[in-house]
Write a structure and sequence with these properties.
Shape of chain A: globular
CATH superfamily of chain A: Thiamin diphosphate (ThDP)-binding fold, Pyr/PP domains
CATH superfamily of the largest domain in chain B: Thiamin diphosphate (ThDP)-binding fold, Pyr/PP domains
Largest interface: A-B, 25 and 26 residues
Low-confidence stretches of chain B: none
Number of strands of chain A: 5
Order of helices and strands of chain A: HHHEHHEHEHHEHEH
Structural class of chain B: alpha/beta
CATH architecture of chain A: 3-Layer(aba) Sandwich
Strand order of the largest sheet of chain A: 1-2-3-5-4
Number of helices of chain A: 10
Distance between the termini of chain A: 21 Å
Radius of gyration of chain A: 17 Å
Number of strands of chain B: 12
Distance between the termini of chain B: 53 Å
CATH class of the largest domain in chain B: Alpha Beta
CATH topology of chain A: Rossmann fold
Oligomer: heterodimer
Largest sheet of chain A: 5 strands, parallel
Number of helices of chain B: 12
Shape of chain B: globular
């Protein structure tokens, strides 16, 4: 896709499907998935970003937000669309955390702070391929992340792009009130990264951030909103694992999108 | 004469020169053999810093990319990266080889943080992992070959120091076969006529003391002792193991570990699961975390694994069994 308006429509469609299968099952982390929608649409559908899903690999650190990729993978033919209805059901192949048993997915999901180290091994051994790791901002509390940052920076792994989903919330509330992460940008700069920021819901800004394959170790901090697209849930920590299932509420959520 | 650790790295270096995919990762741990590796194969050496968690994740990624990664660390630190071994290697099906050096009280008197006396218990819980605990030096080369030829998630427990007594009594040509089967049985004394057959099972460093105990039990107490050196602790080889234990009055497991979930527990589980009702005495360290100064031998003697104490416990166990049999 080339037109931003098309991508905006695609994001709306992905968000709608995501809300549908998440509210139907009531299982997982809808709020954390919603903040990733535009990022994934940009990487998978915008022809002007460097990521090529047929050769490059996207690896989730915050895999609890990973189900946002399921409507996209179904759309691209990795598995039948009807799998979305069977999400988290015994007969279905899609799970709460994406893992390598699911077509189009890789690694495992559910343990924070590890994907970045795993991806740095892949990137070191395979300099011709590109890897994108999606980390949650609260995932940065895991010390192993910082161990890996040292390694990536030292080895100048420019085929590995780190994306921080900076929605500002952990389970218990705002990161800056609970245990400060800021100033994030200068922390990463001091570790030797090229650091860019973008509005994680603006497809034009995302295009600019991912337009060229980087020449240096790169980290992109995306300002995002947890539960993006559902007004009454947006930016509220209490919806981390709470998914509305009441039919009228779900109807309102879907209307909210249009 | 070399330590397990140096022999392993040297043998692996020989293979690595023929195979560019072999990558050795150090978490700031050195060894004489490692100095050679860094000079001769710098492109196949990765320094991860003192960061065991990242080292394991990194190795998992290398493995997925087709490399054969070996992570070299102090054995005690496998606890520190347990989650990464479990998650990035076992769950994600990425085979790597973990070289843990300084097992049991091998770092004495460094204190309990450096002395893994419970690593078998938690590493045994990892699904699909293979745990190898060699004793004699000639077994190292076939173990190196095994890790290259049959990649899987492995934890290899190595001695960091030289121990002549556990390094000499197996001919090299037999060691390949022994590594394949995972254990071997031997009698260390002249064929005893006694029909009071018992089996002593041990692994690694403590095997030497087990041999000494076996000799005394034969010479002074009339037992007919068979000793089993269990090189592969997981998975065990239950069919062959039970076959060779048959005819024993009882068996004794001796380990340089706290008992919960350890070596003896692995043996006992195997007996139970295979409906083998041999009485089993498990001997190990009296406590896991030892805050005392002393050499490895001094600490073993003080915390339940002195030669005389082992013999007394075995004799008491025999008496208990005899009493039970009479009633």
């Amino acid at each position: 896709m080339d037109q931003i308006s098309e991508l905006v429509e695609k994001a709306k469609e992905v968000r709608k499907k995501l809300i549908e299968f998440k509210t139907k099952s009531g299982i997982g982390h809808l709020a954390s998935s919603l903040s990733l929608v535009e990022l994934l649409v940009s990487l998978y559908f915008d022809q002007n970003t460097f990521f090529d899903h047929t050769t490059d690999r996207l690896i989730f650190g915050k895999a609890h937000g990973g189900p946002a990729v399921y409507p996209i993978l179904a759309d691209l033919g990795y598995f039948p669309e009807k799998e979305l209805i069977s999400y988290a059901k015994p007969e279905g192949i899609l799970r709460l955390h994406p893992d390598q048993s699911i077509p189009g997915c890789t690694y495992v999901g559910g343990s924070l702070g590890n994907a970045i180290g795993y991806a740095s091994g892949l990137a070191w051994a395979n300099r011709q391929k590109r890897f994108v790791v999606v980390l949650g901002d609260a995932e940065l509390y895991e010390g192993a992340v910082w161990e890996s940052l040292l390694f990536i920076s030292h080895h100048r792994l420019n085929n590995l792009v780190l994306v921080i989903d900076r929605n500002g919330l952990g389970i218990l509330g705002k990161t800056e009130e609970l245990l400060k992460l800021e100033p994030l940008k200068s922390k990463f700069v001091s570790f030797g990264f090229d650091v860019f920021g973008a509005n994680g819901h603006d497809l034009l800004q995302l295009r600019k951030s991912f337009s060229k394959a980087p020449l240096a170790p790169t980290l992109i901090i995306l300002d995002t909103v947890k539960s993006k697209g559902i007004s009454f849930m947006e930016g509220k920590a209490e919806f981390h694992t709470v998914i509305p299932q009441d039919a009228r509420v779900v109807q309102k959520m879907l209307e909210d999108l249009s | 004469m070399k330590s397990h650790r140096d022999e392993f790295i040297e043998q692996l270096l020989v293979e690595a020169k023929k195979n560019r995919d072999v990558i050795l990762i150090s978490v700031d741990m050195g060894a004489p053999a490692l100095d050679r590796w860094r000079t001769e194969l710098p492109d196949q050496f990765l320094f991860a810093g003192i960061s065991e968690q990242n080292a394991i994740n990194l190795a998992a990624g290398l493995s997925r990319a087709g490399k054969k990664p070996y992570v070299y660390m102090m054995a005690c630190w496998v606890a520190r990266c347990f989650e990464q071994i479990r998650y990035s290697c076992a769950m994600a099906a990425n085979p790597i080889t973990i070289l843990g050096t300084g097992v049991g009280l091998g770092y004495a008197p460094a204190g309990p943080a450096h002395e893994p006396t419970d690593d078998l218990a938690y590493m045994r819980a990892i699904d699909g992992i293979e745990i190898i605990s060699p004793s004699f030096l000639a077994s190292i080369k076939p173990i190196v070959h095994l890790t290259l030829q049959k990649p899987r998630l492995r934890y290899i427990r190595l001695e960091r120091s030289m121990h002549p007594h556990i390094s000499e009594f197996i001919p090299e040509e037999k060691s390949h076969e022994i590594v394949q089967s995972g254990f071997y049985a031997f009698k260390n004394f002249s064929p005893a006529k006694s029909n009071l057959k018992i089996s002593l099972l041990a692994s690694g460093y403590i095997l030497n003391k087990t041999k000494e105990v076996g000799t005394i039990l034969e010479v002074e107490h009339g037992f007919n002792v068979q000793i089993l050196d269990i090189i592969r602790i997981k998975p065990l080889n239950p069919v062959k193991l039970i076959e060779i234990l048959q005819g024993s009055r009882f068996i004794v497991t001796i380990e340089e570990q706290a008992l919960d979930g350890g070596f003896g527990a692995a043996i006992a589980e195997t007996l139970i699961d295979n409906i083998c009702q041999l009485p089993c005495l498990r001997l190990g360290l009296l406590q896991a975390y030892i805050f005392e100064n002393g050499s490895r031998e001094e600490l073993l003697n003080k915390f339940g694994l002195g030669q005389e104490e082992i013999i007394q416990k075995i004799l008491t166990f025999r008496n208990q069994i005899n009493r039970l049999n009479r009633t």
